Amino acid sequence: MKYLHFGAQCPGWRHMEAGAREAAAILGYAYESIAVDKHPALAAAYKMYFPGLIVIDDFSIPFPGSGAQLVESFKRRGPLPGGGDFSQLPAARCDQILPLSPDNLDLLEGVCIPRHRCQGWTDKQTWLRGLDLPIYGCAGLKDGKTVAVVEVLPIELVPYPLPRRPAEDGFIACLYGRVGESRDYRRDLLSRGVLLLAGAGYRSLSVVAGKQTPYPNGPLPLLEAVGFRSETELGKILLRHRWDEIVFMTRRV
Length: 253
What we know:
By secondary structure, the protein is α+β, with helices and mostly antiparallel strands. It has two domains: 2-76, Glutaredoxin (3-Layer(aba) Sandwich), CATH 3.40.30; 96-252, 3-Layer(aba) Sandwich (Aminopeptidase), CATH 3.40.630.30. Helix content is 24%, strand content 28%. The chain has helices at residues 13-27, 40-45, 67-76, 121-131, 186-199, 220-224, and strands spanning 2-5, 32-35, 52-56, 59-61, 96-99, 137-142, 145-154, 169-177, 204-210, 229-238, 243-252. The termini are far apart.
């Protein structure tokens, strides 16, 4: 059994690893944790497009969970029961959009996962600083707090098996809004943040998006509304409570 992770790109990587270890113990499997940024061939072998992937025999689980939940998903070869349909929040405008730099990575903390539920924010900031980039994406603020983030990495640093892209392409590693908000600020962040990304030298953007849900980086209509075009169908993705399809999308900056 393997847990593949893109370094500490996701602040929840240790939580996901803990669940994977627990599932391995329940099943009596040997366990291995592997950073795919150091072993990109494994990302290709397992069709990994997201920061974490748990592989049990021939079955891949890209969402975190307790050991019992992961084992149940493995035995079902599918999603867990429960959950509701995704409902798109009304779009809203950010007060301010800032570039993410090594000096303000604290803007990321607690946005996609509340701080008290995740101890991986320090890991993430350390990992990002280790990439030594002048800009890591953009953050949108409303009333002084971060409400949306788009994290962007040079395509050459991304270990996923993506279609070939030019060297000046920026890959959206994660696009997310603050948990608990009643509005969606991601569209405005993308619309206006591209100017900051262009200033950093990016000439195009690419992303892997879910067709129907925001996990990962969707849904499709949100990206289409800000100029992204579907390029390649990448197949199905297992979410906690449903299946979705994922698409590789691009746009010029």
